[in-house]
Design goal:
Elements (H helix, E strand, L loop, with lengths): L1 H28 L1 H4 L8 E6 L16 H13 L3 E3 L6 H4 L3 E2 L4 E2 H6 L2 H13 L6 E6 L2 H9 L12 E2 L6 H7 L1
Parallel strand pairs: 1-5, 1-6, 2-5
Antiparallel strand pairs: 3-4
Length: 176
């Protein structure tokens, strides 16, 4: 029975990643994504809800978090994937434990290995376009308020593509 459940999770995860890549392709073909901005360049910004299991909370000493975060950020930046959660100002804001999950955002983001691999593969396909994929992982409990109260600044770019709950579309569409 555990094997069946695990297989279903993997299928959902794979399906989810395929949808993410399709959404990014659509975003890169929209006029706003094709017009370079002095703040964005050839970057597609996406916001996703973590879909991969982060496992039990890890006890990472707080003094080690900045180095672990920076190592992971650099590793993906070399592959044209920026993890916005690990860049300022988000990195400082997300150092504490998430009250819902009881774990640090670092553990939640770093566990999204299949999603990050899919984004890396997409960025590699678009390497000739010098495209960078900037991803921000947002938990479901925070995503709606963030999307509803978007303000565009260079420090907090609006997403070109965002995963949303199915019941959110009418409200978000009414906001423009």
């Amino acid at each position: 029975m555990n094997q069946i459940a695990l297989t279903r999770v993997m299928i959902l995860t794979t399906d989810h990643i395929v949808r993410i890549v399709v959404l990014i392709i659509i975003a890169t073909r929209t006029p706003s994504a094709q017009v370079p901005s002095k703040h964005r360049g050839n970057t597609v910004t996406i916001w996703l809800m973590p879909s991969e299991n982060a496992g039990p909370p890890q006890n990472v000493p707080p003094n080690e978090l900045p180095l672990k975060r920076e190592d992971l950020r650099k590793a993906y930046k070399e592959k044209n994937v920026r993890i916005l959660n690990f860049e300022q100002p988000l990195a400082s804001a997300e150092e504490g434990s998430d009250p819902i999950f009881g774990m640090r955002m670092f553990q939640i983001v770093s566990s999204q290995t299949e999603t990050l691999k899919a984004l890396e593969s997409f960025a590699a396909l678009k390497k000739s376009d010098n495209l960078t994929v900037a991803v921000r992982f947002v938990t479901w409990d925070k995503a709606f308020n963030l999307l509803e109260n978007l303000s565009h600044t260079p420090a907090t770019p609006r997403p070109d593509v965002s995963q949303i709950g199915t019941t959110w579309s009418a409200r978000l569409e009414s906001l423009g």
